């Protein structure tokens, strides 16, 4: 049988394509997991950053929200 196109390929050829695709997906996912960095604990990250800014007194904003055009 002619296996030159996907339309004329037999069932074994389709199975081979699916298996190769699944193996390649597993390889890409494995490389992705291996490439991730392990982050230090969150408390260590927070202590290493700039000083903490503390909030001041609340501010009350008021106004009509409209502007007059003359």
Characterise the protein shown here:
- The chain has two helices and no strands.
- It is an all-alpha fold.
- The chain has a domain at 11-47.
- The mean pLDDT is 77.
- Cα radius of gyration in angstroms: 31 Å
Average predicted confidence as pLDDT: 77
Total number of beta strands: 0
Shape: elongated
Largest sheet: none
Low confidence ranges: none
**Could you give the distance between the termini?**
84 Å
% residues in beta strands: under 5%
Structural class comes to mainly alpha
Helical amount among residues, as a percent range?
A: 40-55%
**Count of helical stretches:** 2
Taken in chain order, the helices and strands follow as: HH
Give structural attributes.
mainly alpha; 70 residues; elongated; 2 helices
Topology:
Elements: H1 11-35, H2 42-47
Short account of what is shown:
Helices cover 44% and strands 0% of the residues. It has 70 residues and is mainly alpha-helical.
């Amino acid at each position: 049988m002619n296996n030159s196109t996907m339309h004329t390929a037999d069932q074994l050829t389709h199975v081979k394509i699916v298996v190769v695709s699944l193996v390649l997906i597993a390889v890409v996912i494995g490389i992705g997991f291996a490439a991730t960095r392990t982050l230090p604990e969150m408390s260590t990250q927070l202590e290493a950053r700039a000083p903490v800014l503390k909030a001041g007194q609340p501010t009350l904003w008021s106004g009509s929200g409209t502007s007059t055009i003359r």
